[in-house]
């Protein structure tokens, strides 16, 4: 029987003494609240593309600002919640892994926002949603892990879905260029996910997120420094909202929910992010997806749901 989520009380501490460390951490949320929180996370992640579309600053500036406000949020909220020991992270993890994963995060965000500006929210989000396919290819081609036949089938379905959502096969088509940037966003996120799982899995996720965002800031500062003074006040408000709500708060909710929910359950819900993004674009910007795009989206999201659900069932 899976242990119930408990509040951090003396009685709770006694009952949790013999349980897995995942359930010994201080929990901010009950299990029902965690389920609600993870759905909120999916919505916030889906809204990221909206900010990329309405902010007039370039992709590098958006990413830099997002990381800055995310770091401030994580530090302030983490301090209030008793999250300490950022310095100890370097003793637990290789410095190159933190730097490399931060670099992948920067590339992921910059390429995603470029994709939004070139191809639109739906194309960018679906391009990014290809990241499970890149994870499969990395684990098979580089890490030499055995890939089951059903996983190759899912990879094929995702690839076919990508072909369907491709606006055209003309590389001079700006929308197609946007999809390619979206695929780069998915590929870099796939590398980031593998690094987090293989190298940083034993490190406090809250601390890793904060330090990865610091790396993003450091790497992009030389590229954006001369442009920061040209950013409008309205854009700064939007960038702050993106960094605080869609990054800092979203990550806090994600980490908190994982203390009561299996990671695979959370992943199953977050896989619905493209659906929220397409819905937002449809309602707010009248970006009505074509029938072919919808079919491709259903195939891709269906494959992602299938993979998450299969692993989730295997855990029970």
UniProtKB/TrEMBL annotation:
Domain EamA: 178-306
Stretches that traverse the bilayer: 34-55, 61-81, 93-114, 120-140, 152-172, 178-195, 202-224, 236-254, 266-285, 291-311
Membrane disposition: Multi-pass membrane protein
GO CC annotation: plasma membrane
InterPro entries recorded: Diverse_Substrate_Transporter (IPR051258), EamA_dom (IPR000620), EmrE-like (IPR037185)
Annotated keywords: Cell membrane, Membrane, Transmembrane, Transmembrane helix
Localization annotation: Cell membrane
Keyword Transmembrane listed: yes
Pfam family, one: EamA
PANTHER family for this protein: EAMA DOMAIN-CONTAINING PROTEIN, OS03G0707200 PROTEIN-RELATED
Name the record gives this protein: DMT family transporter
Organism per entry: Zwartia hollandica
